[in-house]
Amino acid sequence: MSSNEPAPPRTGALSHIRVLDLSRVFAGPWAGQMLADLGAEVVKVERPGDGDDARRLGPPFLRDDAGAPTRESGFFMSANRNKKSVTVDLAKPEGQAIVRELAMKADVLIENYKVGDLARHGLDAATLRTLNPRLVYCSITGFGQTGPYRARAGYDSIFQGMGGLMAITGHADDSPGGGPQKVGLIVSDLMAGMYATVAILAALEHRDAVSGEGQFIDLALLDSQVAALSHVGMGHLVSGDPLARCGTQSPTAAPSQMYRCADGAVMLVVGNKAQWERLCAVMGRPALATDARFASNQDRIGHRAELNAILEPIFASEPRQHWIDAFAEAGIPCGPVNELPEVFADPQVRSRGMVVHLPHPRRAQLPMLANPIRLSQTPVQYRSVPPALGEHTDEVLAGLGYDEAQRAVLRARGVV
Asked: Is CATH 3.30.1540.10 what the domain over 256-260+265-336 is classified as, yes or no?
């Protein structure tokens, strides 16, 4: 949606909610985009001139219709659609006054400044919630508001390392290329953003149904990553045992891993005895089903190397689609290991509409990843592409009562 085209009205589940997004980079913007996708009005406050650091995080950058690169990063565009961008200098008293005015009209504020930074500007939770007791104030930091590391900065890869994700990802130390590995996605940011969204919605429900007041949310990336260890973390807590890195292999099932075929790879998961027996038949080795080495799942895990010595050359003898079709017919979970172009060409992904297209000033149609939430009564609405820096400053300030002359003065002083 270009800036000169009116956005469609907000009709989503959260169309009655106003969000002030003071966050940068990813975890906070990801939460803000989720709320915006669900219909909330989200005003993103950015630094004049520079804006959100994520705007410069690339490559890759958007290419226009002629194929020429622009300065708009894919990173920024992934977490900022359906928002309005306003530039405000928080270091200036006039800028702080603008943010306070916005906060007084907001239901939710999201920020990810270092602990104590916004208090110096009178924009902390205690101050703003005094002005607006109904405000839900969500602070997302690396380590949280308490604890010995609370003043430290950090990024996703730091938390993948500290939070145990790298310890359980990758091949065993004694394998080629073994050792801890970072996950390709910024998982700690993604999880923190999702936890923040849930926390915000819970606080709004409590405000509206119980207390009449908002509350403060203290959300940390390290906490989120530790919590996201889920069954792996719980397994360690109840047993005391570490989890060995094992690449694509499952530590709790076999065969359950990636297998290379004649022209690619598949991911196979055999989850029970019936699937194992059907696998043996499909692969032309029915005798394996009664082989004592592979009789139970635990037996197969204990003899995984022997089992793979049998299975790997069979997989390699046929193209991957042969195995995908054969296993699908037999009811055995299996899928291709896709490169990104294959992901977006997949008929299931296409049928589910996981790529949407919106008009953009630099592209006739900008492809964007869709939101996976499917609501029957209040579907996700894609109203606008990620905004240009400061695109909505005049609109938002006018809504606060600043006339054209006042806005010109603020611009001249570098406030906006």
From this structure: yes
